[in-house]
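Input set for joint prediction.
Command: fold jointly, output tokens.
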Amino acid sequence: MLVVLLIGSFFSFFTIPFSGYLSDRLGRKPVYIFGAAATGLFAFAYYALLDTAIPGLIVLAVLVAFAFHDLMWGPLAALAAECFTPRLRYSGASIGFQLAAVFAGGPAPLIATALLAATGSGYVIALYIFGCAIVSIAATAALPSSRDRDFAHDHI
Amino acid sequence: MTIAEVAAVPLSDLDHRAQLRRAVIASTVGTTIEWYDFLLYGQMAALVFAKLYFPSSDPLTGTLQAFAVFAVGFVARPVGAAIFGHYGDRIGRKAALIATLLLTGLSTFLVGCVPTYEQIGVWGAVLLVALRFIQGIGVGGEWGGSVLLSMEWARTGKNRGLIASWPQFGGPAGFFLANLAILAFSQMSGDQFLSWGWRVPFWLSLVMVGIGLWIRLGILETPIFQQVIAGERVARAPVVEVLKRQPKESSSSPSRGWDRWFPPSCMAPLFSPTAPKPSGPRATSCSSFC
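tokens >
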């Protein structure tokens, strides 16, 4: 399993810069929202593929999941930083990102483990991921379009 | 510190491009090291710490273990974000990033030096939790700064997304290196890994931090922050101000912030019923990813 994750993270070395590049061409919000929707929907297929226990399909599932996830992870940096005016930017971007670690990233594995223990089904975890995706999409849609903002000068 | 680094004359095109390249390298390398540190601790906690620091005979250590692995590292991260956000917006990106790298690197190195339960009893566990908190503060200050260090050297909005995605690359790179180090050292015959082998990946962090520090000391403050200083627009209390003025932006990040390791960490527990190998410890270790 560790090896599969190593392959996945190696794959990310390429998909992350590519996602960043895409966000320059197509906009941060569209790429991010597409990534969130794709990750949320793919979660169901993901657990179905894992359930087959066929090594090739498991690797495929991980790679596709990483690719969709990186469509969020790549543009996230620019999206978060561009929300803030230069003089408050370090504080704003850092706090937003790290609060996410506490409220979403940290408990996520615990929630997933608990869901699995309670129901015995990966699809319940997929449902949870799907719910997170909807929250992500709603929050991102509410943000101002950041790419066109004046990045170098104060805007508030 | 920053004042002296403000370029007196504008950089030439060529110099600017060279600085941009150096800034991207400095942020990506540093972020990779910090993720290595953070993830290494999480992985080792499940593999080694339970045996050496949290013997089941002592109930207090059992509670501490839960804290060491999960809560402390995560709680520390927004604390670090506020501390280094403050200094990063007041003193500069460069100074803050040198501090986060040192803090994370030194605390990680010290984790490799903590005496075991056999040697100093419960204090070993206490030290591990304290060091995890310090490490988390460093990691919490790192992300925003390294993204800005890269982005604020970009000249146009045309490639800012690509430039900012390089420090993001540090996440999987750190994950990759941490697990590679664990794979390599766990090949040692059982006792050796438990008695001293596991400490080496933590000590290696010191070497990496030395390299990262050398790179980061050689960069200039970003042009955009130089403008903030030159225009005397430095915020007095940036953390308070940003929460007041841009509450939506500061708080909407959390909701869209499932972390990088969301898919792998959710996958790990599922693996126990399907995979033949027992994956109890692995599920725990995956859970401790950022």
